[in-house]
Design brief:
The complex is a heterodimer of chains A (about 140) and B (about 70). Chain A is mainly α and about 140 residues long. Chain A has five helices and no strands. Chain A is about 80% helix and about 0% strand. Helix content of chain B is about 60%, strand content about 5%. Classes of the chains: A mainly alpha (about 140), B mainly alpha (about 70).
Chain lengths: ~140, ~70
């Protein structure tokens, strides 16, 4: 999910880097083609749906990379990563939930394509949370 | 849970990295166990006992029992 590799054994880290690089390249490739087709060619709805799903598909490769890395870590590292993921899920979940109420009750601005930002926000917050969770075990 | 990992490691002149290699875990894991911030799983505790060639109860002890004995 993120490119954070601290704490992993070198072999696991190398595998993760390769897997994640492939997923990132696939994501960029699919996204460039999808945006080009949708903006320039005005495709029918079923093609647009297919392109939207195809753009999300590389996230499955990222998920696979993450799970392979998790399986390769020792039990302590795995615990740190999963605790950080739980913190990130709670922060992003509560944050988006709260902002939803602010939009509804207090006319806070609507954010365009807000759902697109949930996954990156989760990855980013996960990386930050790892720093704090790791510090707790030092 | 208390443990004597640091003492046992020092007796053998092993660094944290040496012990981590023998246990096939990261150095951070050894450090977290030594400082009592992380209690290892039973399989890892047995592996540690095997590496030191000691019974598991000579390495790990219950915190409350240890305090009561002092």
């Amino acid at each position: 999910m993120t490119c954070e590799i601290e704490g992993a054994t070198k072999k696991v880290a190398r595998q993760y880097f390769r897997d994640m690089l492939g997923a990132c390249l696939a994501y960029v490739g699919v996204l460039v083609v999808s945006v080009f087709v949708v903006r320039r060619m005005d495709p029918p709805q079923w093609v647009a749906i297919g392109l939207a799903l195809a753009s999300a598909a590389p996230a499955l490769l990222m998920l696979r990379a993450f799970l392979r890395r998790l399986q390769g870590l020792d039990e302590f590292q795995r615990r740190v990563e999963l605790e950080a993921l739980a913190v990130a899920a709670a922060v992003v979940g509560l944050g988006s939930f709260t902002y939803g109420f602010l939009q509804s009750f207090a006319n806070f601005p609507q954010i365009d394509d807000v759902l697109l930002w949930v996954f990156p926000a989760l990855c980013f917050t996960w990386g930050i949370a790892q720093f704090f969770v790791r510090r707790r075990y030092k | 849970m208390r443990n004597r990992l640091k003492v046992l490691r020092a007796e053998r002149n092993w660094s944290q990295a040496d012990l981590a290699d023998k246990l096939d875990v990261s150095r951070q894991s050894v450090n977290a166990i030594e400082t009592g911030k992380y209690d290892p799983s039973l399989p890892l505790a047995f592996k540690i006992a095997k590496v030191f060639g000691l019974p598991i109860e000579q390495i790990f002890s219950d915190e409350e029992v240890a305090q009561a004995a002092e």
